[in-house]
Amino acid sequence: QKKGIIDVWWLYDDGGLTLLLPYIISTRRNWSECKLRVFTLANKKEDLVYEQRNMASLLSKFRIDYSDLKVIPDITKKPMEETSLLFDSIIKGFINESADNDDGVYVNDAELSAMRDKTNRHLRLRELLTENSINSNLIVMTLPMPRKNVVAASLYMAWLEILTKDMPPIFVS
Q1: Angle (deg, nearest 10), helices 153-164 and 81-91
Q2: Long-range contacts: 143-148, Cβ < 8 Å, 24+?
Q3: Residue 43 and residue 47: Cα distance in Å, rounded?
Q4: What single-letter DSSP state applies at residue 17?
Q5: What CATH number did the domain enclosing 155 receive?
Q6: What is the β-pairing status of strands 34-41 and 170-172?
Q7: Residue 148: pLDDT above 80?
Q8: What whole-number distance in Å separates Cα of residue 144 and Cα of residue 14?
């Protein structure tokens, strides 16, 4: 690879691994001409400037050169119908209303309803990834962390599938 783009999606503080890995990759000869773009999330529009300063300060402390820093303000916006339908097609084979689901393979409507906000966040994140990073050479993203015994394995895997489906190579850390 001569020139390209490495996108970093910093979703929450993971100690810096999500920033360090793309930086190390960009020091290799094949990736050295790639631009490093950093995306992070703001919970409220009022936090945009604050979050941008914090991230710029963190990148400076790590001595990481970047070409662009973008704070995403609208993660809580409702996902588009098309994205919701794509998710429904992924999860439909794993919906089962039977009570004996101790192995966590299946998810029921009650669990889907309980996790609706978190699911919508992942659907919206997929839209933002598509909007901003579809032409990138590599995407490095903070791995969504499930709560043990709270999120069914099939639901968690559906979240990962919706984030990575038809995207450039994604490295989740």
Answers
A1: 130
A2: 143/172, 143/173, 144/11
A3: 7
A4: H
A5: 3.40.50
A6: unpaired
A7: no
A8: 11
Q: What would the pLDDT profile of 17-38 be if each residue is shown by its tens digit?
A: 999 999 999 999 999 999 999 9
What 3-state DSSP class applies to 105? coil
Could you report how far apart the first and last alpha carbons of the chain are, in Å? 23
Strand ranges across the sheet with 34-41: 68-72, 34-41, 4-10, 138-141, 170-172
**Where in the sequence is the domain holding 9, given as residue range(s)?**
4-172
User: How does DSSP classify residue 45?
Assistant: G
Contact 170, 164 (CB under 8 A): yes
Which pTM was predicted?
0.90
Q: How many domains does the chain have?
A: 1
| Structure tokens given for 67 | 């070409």
Eight-state DSSP code of residue 11: -
Q: Which residue has the tokens 């290799």?
A: 28
